[in-house]
Design goal:
Layout (H helix, E strand, L loop, with lengths): L2 H31 L3 H4 L1 H20 L5 H21 L3 H28 L6 H30 L1 H22 L11 H6 L4 H21 L2 H9 L5 H23 L4 H22 L3 H16 L2 H11 L4 H28 L6 H26 L7 H8 L3 H8 L9
Helix pairs in contact: 1-5, 1-6, 1-7, 3-5, 3-15, 4-5, 4-7, 5-6, 5-15, 6-7, 6-11, 6-14, 9-12, 9-13, 9-14, 9-15, 9-16, 11-13, 12-13, 12-16, 14-15, 15-16
Length: 415
C-alpha cells in the first residue's frame, strides 16, 4: 500500500477521535454547562448535521484546487474547530466549534476515498478505502479511550485541545506524504451532479443513512446506558469504548477484504446481524459481561458496512465519483444525527436508556430492506447495461453533456 494511505489514515485518526470521544464525555460536559444529557447530545447531532451540509459544500468549493491542497485546508479547518470547542465558555459556543470542525469531516473522507482508490489497482479499491478508514477505527481503540480518560481526569477541555494537536499532525502528514496528483481534465460540476440521477446511488446512500444510524442510536448514549443500566463505573466507559473500537477495527478489515468480491452478500449479513444484535442489546445491557460483548459486536457489524457502502457509491457513480463520495460520507453522519436525536427523544419520553437500541435495530432492519430492493432492481437490468442516468454519468454525456462536447461547459470544475 502506498505511503499516501498512511497520511490519509493519520487525518482519519484525528477526525475519528473528535467524532466519537464526545460519547464518553457527555456526562462531564452536561454537568459543566448545567444541562441535561439529552441536551448535551445535541453536540453529537450538531456535528453530524455539519458533516451532512459540509460534505457537498466543501467538496464543491474545493474542486478548483488540487486534492492535496484541499485535504490540507480541511485539516486546518478541523484544527480551528476543535480549539474553539476547547475554549468554549457556553454550550452554544461549543456547538459552534463542533460544527466548524465537522465541515472538514465529510469532504476529507469523500476526497480521501477517491484519492485512496486512485492509488491502487481496480480490484484493490475497497481495500485501499478500508486502509484509510483504519485511522478512524484505531482512533476508537487509542484516541477515544485516551481522550475519555484525559477528559474525566483533567477536564474535557484538555481532550479537545489534544484533538486540535492531532489535527496539526494530520495536516503535516498530508503535506509530507500525499502526492500532488495533477487534476483530472474534463470533470464538470454538471457531470458530478449527474451521478445522483442513478437510483442505485441514492439507494446506496439511503442504506448508509439507516445502517450506520443504527450504530449511533445505541453508541451515542453508551455512557449513561453502561453506568445506569449495566452497572459499570464511570471509569469503565473508557474500556468499553476500546471494545467498540476493536470491533470497528475488525469490522473494517472484514469489510475491506470482502467488499471487492462479495459486496452485496456482505451487506445482507452485516445489516441483518446488526439489527439482531441491537435488538438483543435491550436485554444484554442489563448484564456486564453480555453488554461488553454486545458493544464489540455493534462496532464490528456496523463498521463492516462502511467499505462496501462507500465502494458501491463509487462504483455506481463511475466517472464522476468525487461529489457522490463526499455526499455519502455526509449520509453516514445524517444517519448519526437522526439516530442521536431519536435516541434522545425516546430517553426523554421516559422509555429508559436502553430504548435507543430498539431505534437502532429498526434503522438497521430498514437498511437491509433497501439492500434487498437495490439488488432486486439490479437483477432486472439486462446484463451489461446500466440505467440511462448511470450510463450518462459514466460517459460524461448527459443531454447537456453531449452539447459540451462541441463547446466547453459553462462551469468547469476541476479536482
Amino acid at each position: 500500500m502506498p505511503l499516501a494511505l498512511l497520511a490519509l489514515a493519520i487525518g482519519a485518526f484525528g477526525i475519528g477521535t473528535t467524532e466519537f470521544v464526545i460519547m464518553g464525555l457527555l456526562p462531564e460536559i452536561a454537568g459543566d454547562y448545567g444541562v441535561s444529557i439529552p441536551s448535551a447530545g445535541l453536540l453529537v447531532t450538531g456535528y453530524a448535521v455539519g458533516v451532512v451540509l459540509g460534505a457537498p459544500l466543501m467538496t464543491v468549493l474545493g474542486t478548483r484546487i488540487g486534492r492535496k491542497t484541499m485535504l490540507m485546508l480541511l485539516m486546518g479547518l478541523f484544527t480551528v474547530g476543535n480549539l474553539l470547542s476547547a475554549l468554549a465558555p457556553s454550550l452554544g459556543v461549543m456547538l459552534a466549534g463542533r460544527i466548524v470542525a465537522s465541515l472538514a469531516h465529510g469532504a476529507f473522507f469523500g476526497i480521501g476515498s477517491v484519492v485512496a482508490a486512485d492509488l491502487v489497482a481496480p480490484q484493490k479499491k475497497a481495500g485501499a478505502i478500508a486502509t484509510m478508514f483504519t485511522g478512524l477505527t484505531v482512533a476508537n481503540i487509542v484516541g477515544v479511550p485516551l481522550g475519555t480518560f484525559l477528559g474525566q481526569t483533567f477536564g474535557w477541555r484538555t481532550t479537545f485541545a489534544g484533538v486540535a494537536a492531532l489535527g496539526v499532525v494530520g495536516l503535516l502528514g498530508v503535506a509530507r506524504l500525499v502526492p500532488a496528483v495533477p487534476r483530472p481534465q474534463g470533470a464538470h460540476l454538471r457531470r458530478e451532479l449527474g451521478a445522483f440521477r442513478n437510483p442505485q446511488v441514492l439507494l446506496a446512500m439511503a442504506m448508509t443513512v439507516l445502517g450506520f444510524g443504527g450504530v449511533f442510536a445505541a453508541i451515542t448514549y453508551i455512557a449513561p446506558m453502561m453506568t445506569h443500566v449495566a452497572g459499570y463505573s464511570d471509569g469503565a466507559v473508557t474500556w468499553l469504548l476500546v471494545l467498540f473500537g476493536v470491533g470497528m477495527f475488525l469490522g473494517n478489515l472484514i469489510g475491506g477484504r470482502f467488499a471487492d468480491r462479495k459486496l452485496m452478500p456482505l451487506l445482507y449479513v452485516t445489516l441483518g446481524g446488526l439489527a439482531l444484535v441491537l435488538a438483543l442489546f435491550t436485554l444484554t445491557a442489563h448484564h456486564k459481561a453480555l453488554a461488553a460483548v454486545t458493544v464489540l459486536l455493534v462496532g464490528g457489524l456496523g463498521f463492516a458496512t462502511v467499505p462496501p457502502l462507500q465502494k458501491r457509491v463509487l462504483d455506481q457513480a463511475h466517472g464522476a465519483p468525487t461529489l457522490a463520495s463526499a455526499v455519502n460520507i455526509g449520509a453516514f453522519n445524517l444517519g448519526n444525527a437522526l439516530a442521536a436525536w431519536l435516541g434522545g427523544t425516546v430517553i426523554s419520553a421516559g422509555l429508559g436508556y436502553t430504548a435507543p437500541n430498539w431505534v437502532g435495530a429498526l434503522l438497521a432492519a430498514s437498511a437491509l430492506a433497501l439492500a434487498l430492493w437495490s439488488a432486486a432492481l439490479e437483477r432486472r437490468t439486462p446484463a451489461g447495461q446500466t440505467t440511462d442516468a448511470a450510463a450518462a454519468t459514466a460517459s460524461g454525456q448527459t443531454a447537456s453533456g453531449r452539447e459540451a462536447v462541441a463547446r466547453p461547459a459553462a462551469i468547469p470544475v476541476h479536482h
